[in-house]
Write a structure and sequence with these properties.
alpha/beta; DNA polymerase, domain 1; Rossmann fold; two-stranded antiparallel sheet; 218 residues; six-stranded parallel β-sheet
Length: 218
Amino acid sequence: MFSGYIFDVEGTLIDTVPQHLRSLQEALAQAGFEVPYETLQPYSGLDGNQTLQILGPNLNARQRKEILNAHARIFETKYLPSVKAFSGVRGMFEALTERGGRIALATECKGPELKHYLSLLNIDEFIAATACGDDVEHGKPDPRIVGMALRKLDVSGFQAVMIGDTPYDAEAASGAGAAAAGVLTGGFSTNALRDAGCFAVADEISLLLGALDESSRA
């Protein structure tokens, strides 16, 4: 059905959503803002600067940058060593490759984090291209990171699908002209993902192929 498959990483291939939200919660607390975990969850996967503009409209650019830097430090030192990969990723990537698909990663995480995630996933031989936070300034739903992945794969948007765990992944896919599919491991509902543009939704990444095939038949 597709020749290009573009995957988000955090929350989609690696179980990191609770850890990232707690890191942000702790960074905000250090800056004097007590924000409930439940308030942060709807912004999981949204560009960090945009998240802080919503949560703290009176914060200036310097304050937002300091909070985001603290968030990154807390996550890297306190939570990153304990994150786990979701099951079934390697088998799914192998199946997609056998079908003739080419795979890219499109993630806001940067070099050291991405390197750690890849060591957990053991999928290097299946990755044809990577677009990460070292390559772009803005996170999703800005479509540029998906557009970069498309260019690196050398496929057009209508030939590709972006798979992620948040509505922001789907919005980024749509903005880049690609289809979108979702998994529920980011804490968003099926309706939220479908409303954002996902034509297929799976409970978790190991069930994605079945969801894609079923939606294609439908």
